[in-house]
Amino acid sequence: MNSFDRYLFKKAEEESESFDIPASVKTKIEYTINNLSEKTVPESFSTVKKHKKITPIRKAVVSFACFAAVTILLLPNISPAYAQAMEKIPVIGDIIRVVTVRNYFYKDDRHEMDIHVPNIEENIGPSADMINKDINELTDILVAEFYKELDVSSENGFGSINVTYEVTSNTLRWFTLKLSVNEVAASSNSYFKYYHIDKSSGKIIKLGDLFASSDYSDILTHEIKRQMKERMEKDDSLIYWVNGSSIGDDFASVDYNHNFYWNEDGNLVITFDKYEVAPGYMGWSEFTIDKEIIEPVLKDEFKSIVS
Question: Can you give the residue ranges of every domain in the chain?
Fold first, then answer.
């Protein structure tokens, strides 16, 4: 056990003074820490610290993880009071279901990268694996592009990329994970990707999956254009690319894979990335579609969400 391992273990003992941890539990923790080896450190515990160099967070993180795992998984079974206390923590379920498996970080005077890679841990079938795979592929591309740009403009250019995530819905019926990407180079750009799982079926849900009729696209497009015009009439500073705009390509329609989420009132919210339907100064845009508009074409299995 090295000095930092001993420090972590000492801190763990100090934190545990308010309640008794059985000797068997302490023994298991200490045995695990003492027997850590380099090969026990998963590749997921790695952080980019220097240009083209990925430095793994080694025994210290695993040591702490061992204690945390024993605390979370074992103590509730041996201490009713501790189990009851854990039940009162409102976010504990979300923490277990989605975790950061990697954090790519780089920073110098002109460039910065901070990419958090989430992973859905809940055992909900192949849907979670598919989402995790998609996120890994996307973040790998972003990391590669950052280093490519760094090679080209390391002395002259400026640039940054930041990737974060948020669980925006985690009800008994519905799960939504939002991935946010913000890039800054000559100009800035922000875009989002929403992943949805219907827990009743275990399937990934796209916008088009919600509807029984292909008419949904025309219905949503018409309502979004109506709201665009209404907003511009009320505020001269707003510009949307609709009906013959002289600045950008007119918004045409929403498609099967378009970004969306459900708000707290059960209404559908259609989202657009920066530059997608408006000039950059407008940022990203959202349009709330009242449940009464979509309910006639909504599939029966999803009507309970809007009711």
Answer: 1-89, 207-306
pLDDT tens digits, one per residue of 96-135: 368 899 999 999 988 999 999 999 987 667 999 999 999 9
Pairing of strands 188-198, 98-107: unpaired
Q: Among candidates 95, 101, 84, 96, which has minimal Cα distance to 42? A: 101
Q: Which residues of 2-19 are buried (b: 16+ CB within 10 A; e: fewer)?
A: eeebeebbeebeeeeeee
Which contacts (CB < 8 Å, 24+ apart) does range 123-131 have? 124/175, 124/197, 124/199, 124/202, 125/202, 127/197, 127/202, 127/203, 127/204, 128/197, 130/204, 131/177, 131/195, 131/197, 131/204
**Torsion, Cα of 90, 95, 96, 100 (10° steps):** 180
- pTM (two decimals): 0.67
Supply 23's token pair: 């000797």
Residues 207-306, CATH architecture: Alpha-Beta Complex (3.90)
Between CA 151 and CA 153 the distance in angstroms is 6
